[in-house]
Predict the 3D structure of the following.
Amino acid sequence: MSPGRTRASALAVVLPFAAVIGATCAFQVGASLAKGLFPAVGAEGAAALRLILGAGMLIAVLRPWRHWPGAVALGPLLGLGLATGGAILFFYLALGRLPQGVAIALQFLGPLGVAIAGSRRASDLVWAALAAAGVWGLVGHGLTAGGADRLDPLGLLFALAAAASWAAYIVWGQAASRAYGHATPALAVGIATVMVVPVGIQHAGLEALLQPQLLPLALVVALISTAIPFTLEMYALPRMPARTFAVLTSLEPAFGALAGLLLLHERLAPAQLAGVLAVMAAAAGAAWSSQPRTPEDLASDIPPT
């Protein structure tokens, strides 16, 4: 085999892996940067700004009107849009009250629960038990600790609501993706925008959301949290096994904890770090032991854009 062909083969393997890791890093960095909007417009306003700008980017890139199906299935699309809005809004609300690593690990219980609920094998009880141990590691210390180490109970509820929204996103996403194809993300984010923007306006006020000084950071958050990870994941999905993709995305809580540490100076207790690792291991194990799926099925497991 010629050196040029060997190099091309190596790149064909490495680039999809790098794309998934890059998408995961971008999403978590975007979440950390979004906290910079919270003092001005709150979590609700930050979610509204991200969705408005992110929807504009996705619609401009994907042009969903080109992929409109002959038989319109509005039910799954509306469900997906509401789940997308709920996942982003509740995650930002949790992010305003919890360390980022804790919030993203708890949110991961959504897809993990869907994977385990759809299985009929006794071995998956191991992953469920490992996830439960991880959750206790995440929240047990924070519920009994005092001072700055104590976790906000309302933040925990918001994180669990984000997990439930992500689970609904997966369920509705499979049906909507079959009907709308590549147009699905732009349409779902558009519906989520219509749902969340009134909440952001009610909380922060329209004048606050339109402050010109917020626009640069809001654009960066939308770009890093939406356009970049979506583009990278859509590149990687057709180029790697579905199980490999799912296992790589299970690294997300670790990247969340790292981004929280480096960008927000959030430190987790040893028990919480162990909880993050346990949730990651449960997610990776459930993904690897699941039935093989097509890239189209995996696309519905991607965190809401």
In short: The longest helix spans residues 3-34. DSSP finds 14 helices and no strands in the chain. Residues 38 and 189 are 21 Å apart (CA to CA).
